[in-house]
Structure formats: structure tokens, C-alpha cells
Specification:
Shape: globular
Structural class: mainly alpha
Radius of gyration: 19 Å
Number of helices: 11
Low-confidence stretches: none
Helix content: over 70%
Strand content: under 5%
Order of helices and strands: HHHHHHHHHHH
Distance between the termini: 9 Å
Length: about 250
């Protein structure tokens, strides 16, 4: 099979990692680092502010947010491809220790997501501001992707760690981070399609932001424990056998 992405899709292990990556992206969107800033992003990429957001042209808003999502998706997918390729170089015949170390890192990232380890709670951002409006939207997305936030970094780190299982490749790393970007980016796009209702939904999630933070941090810690204990690898192996025997994809 000459298509690296087709090989990734036909790998049984990817089907276990995909929902985790998608959920990690959604958790990132609902986190305290992103959710309160959504109205500001909507206004910035469309060149509108305040009450004008609810009266803007839907197409302009959707285009601006789409370019913003495209900007950070390019950054994250490139990072995923690089880490996936590094994993291909590191993973040898006896690389169980690598997955255990990665599991420990994911546990630490879960603690960071919950607000622990104060050194990681500071944000690192590119402070140069692109022009407001559609022209600056993809640049704003790129700067968003290149920064560090204590809610984005841990979840993205967990997704990158998942790409190291069962034959790490650049294509696998890129694909999983793409799925992560879907989880993070689709809520932006849905809100852009219905600003009034979307902003109302944001108010609900802001009221429950602490519970969402507990859920996200707990998910990362649980994933890390599964990786360290070897259960995640066992589940992948069982899924691989089932996938090889029962599933045939037309790719």
C-alpha cells in the first residue's frame, strides 16, 4: 500500500485513538483558556465588536472563523507530523519504556490541566497582532497554534503521545492532530453559523467550567495511567487482531 494515510486508516489502533483525540479537542475548546475568549475571536476575525456580532453577515463570520481554524490546524498538523516522525525513529523493538515515559508525561499534563504545577500555568504567546478582519484571521490562527496555554498544551501533548503507539509515523501523527483540530475547531464554526444561540450556549458552559476542567484533567490522568500500566497497548493489540480478522475498508 503506497498511500501512508490509507495505511493509517486501515490500522486498527487508530480507531481507539481517534475518539480520544476528538474529545481532547472539544475539551480544549470548553476549557477556561479558550471558552471565555471565543466572542473576542469572533469579533477579531470578522472585524466586528460588541452587539454587531449578532447582526453581522453569517457568511463573513463563518469565513473568518474558518480561516482562523485553518491557521491553527496547519500548525498543529505540522507538529503532529514532526512528532510522529520522531516516534518512528525512536520506537525500536524494545520500546515499552518510551510509552511508559509518555504515559507519565500525560499524567503530569492532566495535573497541569487541573491547575497544578504553577510553572506551567503561565501562557506563552506571540504578542504581535495581525490586522483585524478576514486578512488577519489565518495569521491569528497561526499565532494561536504557536503559543502555549495550560489548557491547550496538555491535551495536544496527550494526542501526540497516542501517535507513538503501534508504529509511529509522520502520517499518523498528522492524522491524529487533524482529528484533534476537528474537536477544537468545529465548535468555533458552529457558533459562527448561529451567533446568538452559540453565545447563549457559551454562557452555560462558562457556568460549568470548573466541572469541565475536572473532566478534562481526569481524562488525561486516566489515559496516562492506562499507558503506564500497559493496558492501552493491550487494548490496541486486541483491537488490531479483531480489526485484521473482521474489518475490510475500501481504501
Amino acid at each position: 500500500m503506497n498511500n501512508p494515510f490509507a495505511e493509517v486508516i486501515n490500522s486498527g489502533s487508530i480507531w481507539l485513538a481517534m475518539p480520544v483525540a476528538l474529545l481532547a479537542g472539544l475539551v480544549s475548546f470548553l476549557s477556561p483558556c479558550v471558552l471565555p475568549l471565543v466572542p473576542g475571536y469572533l469579533g477579531y476575525v470578522s472585524g466586528l465588536t460588541g452587539a454587531d456580532l449578532e447582526n453581522q453577515r453569517r457568511g463573513r463570520m463563518f469565513a473568518g472563523i474558518g480561516l482562523f481554524v485553518l491557521g491553527f490546524s496547519v500548525v498543529f498538523v505540522l507538529i503532529g507530523a514532526i512528532f510522529g516522525q520522531l516516534g518512528a525513529w525512536l520506537m525500536g523493538p524494545d520500546a515499552a519504556w518510551v510509552t511508559q515515559v509518555l504515559g507519565a508525561v500525560v499524567i503530569l499534563m492532566g495535573v497541569v490541566f487541573l491547575g497544578g504545577m504553577s510553572w506551567f500555568q503561565s501562557e506563552a504567546k506571540i504578542h504581535a497582532k495581525p490586522p483585524a478582519g478576514l486578512w488577519g484571521a489565518p495569521i491569528l490562527g497561526v499565532t494561536f497554534g504557536l503559543g502555549w496555554a495550560p489548557c491547550i498544551g496538555p491535551t495536544l501533548s496527550a494526542v501526540l503521545a497516542l501517535s507513538y503507539f503501534d508504529g509511529s509515523t509522520a502520517a499518523k501523527g498528522a492524522f491524529l492532530t487533524f482529528i484533534y483540530c476537528l474537536g477544537l475547531g468545529l465548535p468555533f464554526l458552529l457558533i459562527a453559523l448561529g451567533v446568538r444561540r452559540g453565545l447563549g450556549a457559551l454562557a452555560f458552559f462558562r457556568r460549568h467550567r470548573r466541572g469541565l476542567q475536572y473532566f478534562g484533567g481526569g481524562m488525561l490522568i486516566a489515559l496516562g495511567v492506562l499507558m503506564v500500566s500497559g493496558l492501552w497497548g493491550t487494548w490496541i493489540n486486541e483491537l488490531q487482531f479483531w480489526f485484521a480478522d473482521e474489518v475490510r475498508l475500501p481504501i
